[in-house]
Amino acid sequence: MPHFQDNILTALKETVVNVFWTKKDVRALFRRCDVPEPLVHQQDWSAYKYHIVSPVLDVLNETGHGLGPMRRILQECLAYNDGEHLLWMSDGAKRKREAERCLEHLRLLVKDHDAALRTAEEERLARLRNLEEQKRGAAFRKRLDAIQNRFYAYCADDDAQSRGYGLEDILYDLFSLFELTLRGAFRRTGEQIDGAFTHRNEHFLLEAKWQKQPCNLNDLRDLDGAVGSSLDNTLGLFLSINGFSDEGLRGYLQGHRPRLICMDASHLIHVLEDRMDLADLLDRLKDAAVHRRRVFVSMAEILSGNS
After folding, report:
1. pTM
2. N or C: the chain end with fewer CB closer than 10 Å?
3. Other CB atoms closer than 10 Å to residue 155's CB: what's the count?
4. 272, 299 in Cβ contact below 8 A?
């Protein structure tokens, strides 16, 4: 495959002929640019310059080792800003104009060529990025599907202890998958999971329960107390697979600033089924707590835009 397109090659030949006016200058150019000596000697140096320059550049353009000399010749030509060096000749003004015309034409072609190469390279890199994103997306989906399948398997398990251990592993793997910074392993005590993670530079204590009855006010106050005894920027995330009692949610909001956000199985399932990003879900729940003093917003409300 030729190194340079035909239009650039033709413009380069004309530029060499018009900028390097004497054959001595052309030979010196070839020497500086490492054109192979046998190729230079093969030319009929009694012929017109164009008939010397053209076959040399044609050969260089078609051979693997010719790219370096071709690039150096191009650089030597474009190093000239004008044709002032030709004014000493009897028709110097004419030669100057012709050389500058050739230089300007060559520069425009090279500029367009470089821009096309950059565009092609950018498109190539974009394709590679898209491919990598697709691969990462497929790998992400595969891991999420595996976590989801484990959760549904535990939903059919009547053994509370087994569900507790299963939920511990599921949450740990899920938070890791969504790149929420975990602070130590999650710990299981009975049907309760305790853990901690970081999201948007805020620290969260996590409490998760998988019990038959909805969590009540005492459950909420227990986590709130743990949050209150931690640093000021600490919040709490309470996941109760079977939800929260209305009395518990109302009672928790009475008398002090809420420090918790709450999720149930519906929130978790939407994340596991890749219908809601976990980080986005936490943001939505936190916004509802900050702006509306609601520590629990159902998934149906979030999806309807009423959160």
Report:
1. 0.57
2. N
3. 13
4. no
